[in-house]
């Protein structure tokens, strides 16, 4: 009997240590990078040492709809990707992407189709050794690239709102609790058709976290200029999910390592108010087709020849909007509105939103897009390391400016 007390004390200490260890793990911020086939470039390990997750993009969704499929085409392999990052980094396969909507609709349609898709996801994870998946069905319920195509109108896709969480549940049941499931989701409230207070609980029951795409917040469907990755618009997008019931620690803030441009209307002088200025028609009103009046390129890309002079002016003369929170420039000669994030804009966005909202992490599209200098990656590294103090200081400063 005399030895029981020390043994029980040992058990208590062990239990307490396990609880603390799990608590520390749960509190660790996620730091996620998409690595794309378009820009398959990874810098030296010192720059990616703190990245917790890497999502390899993309594997097409359509291949998961074929029963018994056993080929998994991707621009790289899990074995090739792992040594480029820290040993504990979670390597995911991102499935889908912008425009890859039809295959997801097919997958989600019935219980049988959902199970086929889910079993193929399991087979892919078993075959490749990936640690999980990122579901990039970006616009369930409508507003995808084909939203004006007959048979693919929003009214035709209303059923997807209920089918989307069912597909996620089928995948979770197939792959089990140990593998990671994340989902890339729209950053604009107008696109959050499948993400409502009634659907969020069932969605979150299957996924580990959401990558909220707080970029492309201006796109060709808009008719006035705004910051495509702006701070205030990002807050509005994050708030929409939190208000719908997403736990803050399950939400990740999105960053864009690329630049966007938009053509402004010929009959309007934007010099006095470049933000909120009328654009040219950028999308065909009948078909939804891109009219070529907007575009984007990454820091890795060569600047298109016809845009190079204007972009050089933007880099030299661009300003940060202290109200909306975004770097911009309007070129009156070319009638081009430029929107992008500087390193300082990234630090502010991560500090204000990450700290202010208590989010679970940050992600960026994408790692190789920031090559060869990786200046925006370095800025994000700094912001993540200093999130505690940066969030408090920048957040207070931003709130004071917003109240003026």
Automatic annotation (TrEMBL):
A Gene Ontology molecular function term of the record: endochitinase activity
GO cellular component, one term: extracellular region
Matches recorded under PROSITE patterns: GH18_2
Domain GH18, first and last residues per copy: 29-387
UniProt-listed SUPFAM superfamilies: (Trans)glycosidases
Keywords annotated in UniProt: Hydrolase, Signal
Residues of the signal peptide: 1-23
EC number of this enzyme: 3.2.1.14
Gene Ontology biological-process annotations: carbohydrate metabolic process; chitin catabolic process
EC supergroup of this enzyme: hydrolase
PANTHER family attached to this UniProt entry: CHITINASE (PTHR11177:SF378)
Protein name: chitinase
Species this protein is from: Clathrospora elynae
């Amino acid at each position: 009997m005399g030895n029981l007390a020390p043994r029980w004390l040992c058990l208590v200490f062990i239990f307490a240590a396990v609880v603390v260890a799990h608590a520390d793990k749960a509190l660790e911020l996620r730091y996620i990078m998409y690595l794309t086939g378009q820009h398959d470039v990874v810098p030296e390990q010192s720059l990616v040492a703190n990245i917790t997750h890497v999502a390899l993009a993309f594997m097409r969704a359509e291949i998961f709809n074929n029963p018994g499929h056993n080929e998994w085409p991707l621009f790289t392999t899990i074995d090739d990707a792992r040594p480029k990052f820290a040993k504990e980094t979670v390597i995911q396969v991102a499935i889908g992407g912008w425009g890859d909507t039809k295959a997801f609709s097919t997958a989600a349609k019935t219980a049988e189709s959902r199970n086929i898709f889910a079993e193929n996801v399991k087979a892919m994870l078993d075959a490749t050794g990936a640690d999980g998946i990122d579901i990039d069905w970006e616009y369930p319920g409508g507003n995808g690239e084909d939203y004006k195509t007959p048979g693919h109108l929003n009214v035709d896709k209303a059923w997807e709102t209920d089918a989307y969480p069912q597909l996620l549940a089928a995948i979770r049941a197939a792959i089990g609790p140990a593998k990671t499931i994340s989902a890339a989701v729209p950053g604009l409230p107008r696109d959050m058709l499948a993400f409502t207070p009634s659907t969020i609980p069932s969605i979150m029951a299957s996924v580990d976290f959401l990558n909220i795409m707080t970029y492309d917040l201006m796109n060709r469907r808009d008719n006035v200029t705004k910051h495509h990755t702006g701070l205030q618009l990002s807050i509005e997008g994050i708030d929409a999910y939190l208000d719908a019931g997403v736990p803050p620690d399950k939400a990740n803030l999105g960053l864009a390592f690329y630049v966007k441009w938009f053509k402004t209307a010929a009959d309007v002088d934007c010099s006095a108010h470049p933000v909120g200025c009328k654009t040219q028609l950028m999308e065909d009103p009948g078909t939804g087709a891109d009219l070529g009046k907007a575009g984007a390129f990454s820091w890795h890309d060569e600047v298109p020849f016809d845009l190079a002079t204007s972009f050089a002016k933007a880099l030299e003369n661009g300003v940060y909007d202290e109200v909306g929170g975004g770097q911009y420039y309007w070129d009156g000669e070319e009638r081009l509105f430029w929107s992008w994030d500087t390193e300082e804009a990234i630090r502010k966005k991560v500090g204000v939103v990450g700290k202010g909202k208590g989010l679970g992490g940050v992600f960026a599209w994408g790692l190789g897009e920031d090559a060869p200098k990786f200046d925006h990656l370095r800025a994000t590294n700094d912001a993540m390391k200093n999130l505690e103090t940066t969030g408090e200081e920048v957040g207070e400063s931003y709130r004071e400016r917003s109240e003026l």
